[in-house]
Amino acid sequence: MNEAQFKRRKWQSTIFFIMIILITYVSAVITEFRLIDGLAAIPNAIVWMISNLFITGETLENLPKILEKLAETIFMSIAATTTAAVISLFLSLLGSKTTRVNGFFSMLARFIASFSRNIPVVAWALILLLSFGQNSITGYLALFVGTVGFLTRAFIESIDEASQHSVEALKATGATYYHIVGKAVIPQCLPQVISWILFMIETNIRSATLVGILTGTGIGYSFDLYYKMLDYHTVALITILIVITVIIIEMISNTIRKVIL
């Protein structure tokens, strides 16, 4: 890199950071956010959490009911992720440049992925809530639709990054489309596919908590119920159980990734 290029990049970086600072300042003015007031409120917030968010012996009496709702959330997240993965794999084969059937289906698959991915899961829950009401089906469908969009995009990238040598070799021998997919594409992408599915299970367990508040299901419903009852001790128990569950799921996922990758 010569001196002129270095100076140009330096100026570009400077202008970029100035723009970020200006955008941040304008955003703070529009939203009436005051950093000093926010920092000043932190000590009071910490004192309130210490005074209210702790577990008591009476709180533990609610543990069986909470664990039942937590299990419901976990199973719903796994079901939504695995079923969405099947649909996503089919769409990704249509959308990938390596395995696409034609341009129309490739564009359609990418559009479906982009549309469902760019609408937040919470927004999907609110939309579906109008049609299906507050039940587990609404929560499942909200997670399902959001997962289809994310996994389709991830699977397309995994397929596109696969080695083309085996694909070209099978094409040269006159292999059919299904043989190419089954013998060359899927075996190469399978570790990445499994890794993405595990990642989405972790993500959906977190999302299912918020979705449950809206749909009246799972651990989110329990959190909302006890919060509205001002039973902060039980709220603390639920929060701790959610954190522990996510950590355990993440540890299991990391162990599986180490084995398959």
Explained architecture:
Helix 5 packs across helix 8. This protein is mostly helical and 261 residues long. The chain has 2 domains: 3-52, no CATH class; 59-260, Orthogonal Bundle (MetI-like fold). The mean pLDDT is 84. The radius of gyration is 24 Å and the shape is globular. The longest helix is centred in the C-terminal third of the chain and has 39 residues, at 177-215. It is built from 10 helices and no strands.
Task: Please outline what is shown here.
The protein has 261 residues and is mainly alpha-helical. Helix content is 84%, strand content 0%.
Keywords for this entry:
261 residues; mainly alpha
- Largest sheet, described in full? none
Distance between the termini: 37 Å
Tally the structural domains: 2
SSE-based structural type: mainly alpha
Strand content: under 5%
- Oligomeric state of the chains present here: single chain
Alpha carbon gyration radius: 24 Å
Give the number of DSSP strands.
Answer: 0
Order of helices and strands: HHHHHHHHHH
